[in-house]
Amino acid sequence: MNAKKSTFMFVAVAITILALVAFPSSAYANHSWNGYHWARTSNPFTIKLGDNVSGSWDSMLRTASSDWSKSNVMDTTVVAGGARPKNCRPTSGRVEVCNASYGNTGWLGVAQIWITGSVHITQGTVKNNDYYFGNSTYQYNNTAEMQHVICQEIGHTFGLDHQSTDGSSLNTCMDYYHNTSASDTKSTHPNQHDYDELGIIYSHLDSFTTIGSAPAALPQEIVNGDFSSPNSWGQLISSEKGASTYVRDFGNGNQVVTYVIWTEQ
Fold it and tell me: Does a structural domain hold residue 115?
């Protein structure tokens, strides 16, 4: 091979490698929520979603469950709820999903996860605030935005963060686009990037499981604690456009993490 041809091939390979680094494929997803994940010993695994919702939220919960079950590593199943919607207390080893009029709080939805070992999710809750969704004076009172919020908050309980918070639609429920009418159905379902990220988050296995029951190492006062009010959420860790993350740290890797999606007001 002559020197000119060899040099050309070297440059071509170098450009290809640079392009792969600069423009990664969708397999290189990047919106894990701080490495949080459910511990489990095999894939695929199934997360139970407790049905504590009413009215049109029922069909939206089932749509979100079906959407997230398209992942290659996990499934979800809707089961009878184990909480009262107003307080939405958690159940070990699964996610309770609730709706109620939680008042003029400024938030549309709240996702909470209980953590052991600094990263392992042991239980989760999702709250959808009917104060805004059930009031025709607010732009959020439409079925598309309701689907967006319930899909996103459930996604957070699997360890996913937002893909974007700049207000633009990436056509995923994990962005911060607000649907202003029922006919605007953008950002109401996960996209391939979300499924890719779940594949990355759950690419390794653990030696124990937190699905079905919390490990004994998590103290009962944390498992059964009431963390519904903002003054119980702990330290503000991040605040983006329309979203905030709080961590209540109990030491020894035990935490309650709260993700809030705010109204634009």
Answer: yes
CA distances from 148 to 78, 103, 236 (A): 18, 20, 24
Rounded CA separation 110/87 (Å): 12
Asked if the structure places residue 211 within a domain, the reply is yes
Block mean pLDDT (10 aa), the chain, length 265: 40 30 40 89 97 96 98 98 94 96 95 95 96 87 95 97 80 90 94 96 95 72 85 92 90 94 82
In the chain, the amino acid numbered 24 is P
Cα gap 128→57, rounded to integer Å: 9
Residue 28 lies in a domain: no
φ, ψ of residue 167 to 5 degrees: the values are 95, -10
- Distance in angstroms (rounded) separating the CA atoms of residues 158 and 161: 9
CATH number at residue 167: 3.40.390.10
Nearest to 26 by CA among 175, 202, 187, 193: 193
Which two tokens mark 102?
Answer: 């939680």
Question: Domain residues for 50?
Answer: 33-262
In a domain, 1, yes or no: no
Instruction: Look up residue 140 and give its two tokens.
Output: 């959020």
> In this structure, what are the phi and psi dihedrals at residue 37, rounded to the nearest 5 degrees?
-160, 160
- Residue 206 structure tokens: 């653990």
Confirm if 154 and 98 have CB atoms less than 8 A apart: no
Q: In the 8-state DSSP scheme, what is residue 1?
A: -
CA distance 73 to 69: 9
Residue 95 is given by DSSP the state: E
Going from the C-alpha of 149 to that of each of 158, 167, 202, 210, 249, the distances in angstroms are: 15, 14, 23, 25, 26
Q: How many domains does the chain have?
A: 1
pTM comes to 0.86
